[in-house]
Amino acid sequence: MEEQNPWWFHENDPEWEEFENLKYQIIPGWINRISLVPFSLNFILGPRRVGKTMGIKLLIKELFKENESPYAIFYFDCGVLENYREIVDVIEEYLKLKKRKNVKTAYIFLDEVTLIPNWWKAIKYSVDRRKLKNDILTVTGSITIAAERHIGAFGGRQGDGKTIEVMPLSFHEYYTLFYDEFFPSAGKNVFENYLESGGYLAYLNGRLRTRDVISTLKADINAVGKNTSVARDVLGAIIDIAPNPVSFRKLAERAGVSSPTVRDYIELFEGLHVLLQIPFIEGGKRVLGRKERKFAIRDPLLARALVQWTGRTLDRAVLYEWTVQEHLYRKFGEVFYFRTGRYEIDAVAGDMKVEVRSGASKGRYPRDVVVLEGKDVPAFLYEL
Question: Domains (ranges, CATH) in the chain?
Fold first, then answer.
């Protein structure tokens, strides 16, 4: 506990110094959405290496300046723990310290807690005992398969807390690392870089490689008791067919597994923030869950890493489509596709219908469809 909380001794956290030395820096906006009103139980969910820990540490730095007692701020990386009982022990030990130091309101951060089996039992137990009623508890995690169901069980227990999803940088956020205003020529060049590095700031700063992304994903797959070879085969089948719609049965045949297995692993990939399912919507109104669906990998760097892992190739046009679908999903919370015998619409979200072409557009579309040629995509994403 002492090693992970150097501010208790008025020392700088190593990650504060690391941030200052980064060539490319951004203060993540999501930290301003974390509720700091007692009692709050915040859930911060997102893939690993997207800056959740760095964001938490930057928030702690500000809290450290504002609080008289440094002991009011407690951070713990749960990756060193073995089971949920140890999470309870850590919380109990800190609460003893809090009492000794006469701290009235504490800011407690438990990092990567979802790596621990049955982690939610420890959080629920601690909250139900009401010893945290004057505090703010913030929990982060990268593995959200089933986590969202467990979070649903906290209904009425979050107080003023929020559930926040953290993803790699959007294109707009990425662009602002280089320019203050949007210029079409600059947008084109920055977008080409975005398709290489994705929204992972760590990659842009030379602190992350594609093989690191693969090894982290494999570790997460193993952590939930799944087979990495099956995961690779299912992902490979998805990449082979992209960007065309496909049924679970056809995916299963291509991957050499059963349809239930494909469904199981796709749920896993969604929980790991790897994959988007894009169902068919009829006439822009009725979602047909039994129809073939599209799949999109949620970040360009992640896509490059998975192509490398599965030994596939990927047309750049697919990355254009996936990137637009992901950004529309972030804005509207859902995304669908639609097709007729005459045309296909890659993304239907909110009141928007968008067809993506990496080159010049071909064919005619209804007037309410935005047809994006490749050169138009950067400006569209920036303004979205």
Answer: 6-165 (3.40.50.300), 171-243+272-383 (no CATH)
